[in-house]
Amino acid sequence: MKLLVCISKTPDTEAKIQLAADGKSLDTSGMKYIMNPYDEWYALVRALELVEANGGTVTVVNVGPADNDQIIRKALAIGANDAVRINAEPTSAWFVAHQIAAFAKNEGYDIIFCGKETIDYNGSEVPAMLAELLDLPFVSWASKLDMEGDTATIQRDIEGGVEIVKVKTPFVVSAAKGMAEQRIPNMRGIMMAKRKPLKVVEPVPAEDPVAIVQYAMPPAKKGVKLVDPENMDELVRLLHEEAKVI
Amino acid sequence: MSVLVFAEAPQGQFKKAAFEAVTYGRKTADLLGTECHALVLGEAENPAQLGTWGAHKVWHATHDNLNTFDSRSWAAAIAQAAEKTGATVVVMSHTSTGKSVEGRVAIRLGAGSVSGVSRLPTIDGGQFHVVKPVFSGKAYATFEIKTEKKVLSVMGNAVRPETLGSEAPVEALSLDVPAPAVEVVEVKRVEGRVPLPEAEIVVSGGRGLKGPENWGMIEELAEVLGAATACSRPVADMGWRPHHEHVGQTGLAIRPNLYIAIGISGAIQHLAGVNNSKVIVVINKDPEAPFFKAADYGVVGDAFEVVPRLIEAIKRFKAQQN
Question: Which range of residues forms the domain containing residue A35?
Fold first, then answer.
């Protein structure tokens, strides 16, 4: 099987988000970055498991500047065979999807894995856009994926339950919790990753149809109002009269 | 140049998400000085009712290839409907269906898109702006959409469905829909409950409840409030509650009007899924629990004593209201 896993770089889950003084951009000084958890824990690991069971290769692709090599090497250390970095700032989902599609178009991947969303812009757009650009079937928010021959049985998360679907390769899938378990790279993996191929390719032209013009912090909480645990009538009164939510 | 709202009808029934999208679409149409049309794909009960929530007109397309959900077939249908009806803005719900088709429709239409918007659009200095939460709710970003055609998906509870009209005329729309490549084998839904993403009130339990046998009072509190039940990640991981109830970074992100967290410490990964809730109540016996910092109301006390008291207080309140 020939598998592609799309990986993103995002601020660490616990990173404090701070804005530049004019709110037009983020203050990224001292920001710690990680591989997007859905890409790493679920998409990449499930792809590796499929190749371990059935044979084949796992390639990771990232759109980003040279700084991103750090997270790409991590993906190689976890077990991917090789990597491609498309050398451009990932300015929008549209831009990223066009870059990956241009690269993947003639490669004949059986499955293209993405995470269900990135934890920075929470868009869930790249996998659907990529599927459309490549004219492939797409299954979103998959929490289980099993292969039998060229047919995948996938469980996807829907409102208040799950849907079980079948789809034949090639297809695009976005991975959610449940699809696999996180793997920590070992020393051997880290050493091997240094020698694995990481190809850098230049981007294709793609104009951003959207742009972020302003950031804002959520309105600050006024601070918690503590209610006497003996007096729940008071809590109900506050929720009704003050907060107006019941 | 109309606004076209793809109104989902899972199992043929419109839900709150569809009504919210229609109201959002109508207000967007008012802003742009144009009409709001709803698009219904496949069999659905009484499409004319979408007029109540703001649609001037309903386009209804049925086709054998729309009988089950496939993102490619449905996106093709939505994009084609937008082109046939002259729509420049396409609005849909940020649901499992919306997330599967939104990006595809944007590519098909050559449209700029923003998913998961949380406020109505504005026109600022001639630019079309929308706002969405980013960094799992730690900040908001305003996006400018530069293209003439635009695609938006609307986060649950971003707007309230409003009565803005009466029944709308329904017109059949004939579409050329490609055959589905994804075969739906089974749909498993928990029946008879408010689905979590749509709930206005959510009652959520964590490890502090000590075991699945203690969920009776959580269910009862949810029952008296007409709320959905949710849980923290450890609770889902230990199998105390089903996976689809898990809210937080790796689970579901929700934004109800009222979120009541019981026995949940409030790790940053949990907050990422609930910090856009309008009002947060935290019940925890540990006064140092980090969740109190993100809460509007807090009760420091033993859940096993506080929750039954709260249930009785709500029953008294409801009895007075009637």
Answer: 2-218
Chain B residues lying within 8 Å of A166, measured CB to CB:
182-183, 185
Token pair, residue B58, equals 């309903």
Query: Whole-angstrom Cα distance, residue A156 to residue A114?
Result: 14
B170-172 and A151-158 strand pairing: unpaired
Q: How many domains does the structure of chain A reveal?
A: 1
- A228: in domain: no
Residue position matching structure tokens 């991103």: A68
From B43's Cα to the closest Cα of chain A, the distance in A is 19
β pairing state of B201-205 and B228-231? parallel
**Facing residue for B115 by CB, picked from A125, A153, A238:** A125
pLDDT along chain A (246 residues), means of 10: 98 93 94 97 98 98 98 98 98 98 98 97 97 98 97 94 96 96 96 97 98 93 94 97 95
- Structure confidence at residue B147 (pLDDT): 98
**Residue listed under structure tokens 């907060």:** A243
Other Cβ atoms within 10 Å of B103 Cβ, number: 31
Q: Which residue has the tokens 């397309």?
A: B61
Nearest CA-CA distance, residue A67 and chain B, Å = 20
B32, B89 Cβ separation under 8 angstroms? yes
Assigned fold of B196-321: Rossmann fold (3.40.50)
Give residue A159's pLDDT. 87
- Res B192 pLDDT > 70: no
Residue B314, token pair as written in the block? 């709500």
Find the helix or strand (DSSP H, E) in which B216 lies.
helix B216-225
Closest CA of chain B from A1, distance in Å: 20
Mean pLDDT over B131-139 rounds to 93
Q: Which residues of B touch A167 (CB under 8 A)?
A: 181-183
Q: Please compute the mean of the pLDDT values over residues B17-31 and round it to a whole number.
A: 98
Interface contact flag, B225 A246, Cβ < 8 Å: yes
Kindly report, residue by residue over B233-268, the tens digit of the pLDDT: 999 999 999 888 999 988 888 999 999 999 999 999
Contacts of A150 (CB under 8 A, 6+ apart): A110, A168, A169
Please give the pLDDT value at position A222.
85
Taking the CA of residue A25 and the nearest CA in chain B, the distance in Å comes to: 10
**Contact list, A97 vs chain B (CB under 8 Å):** 103, 107
pTM of the model: 0.93
Q: Is B234 in CB contact (< 8 Å) with chain A?
A: no
Q: How far is CA A2 from CA A104, A110, A144, A172, B304, in A?
A: 11, 5, 19, 13, 54
User: B2-172: what CATH class?
Assistant: alpha beta
Does the distance separating the beta carbons of B195 and A235 come in below 8 Å? no
Element at B115 (helix H, strand E): strand B112-117
Domains of chain B, by residue range, sit at: 2-172, 196-321
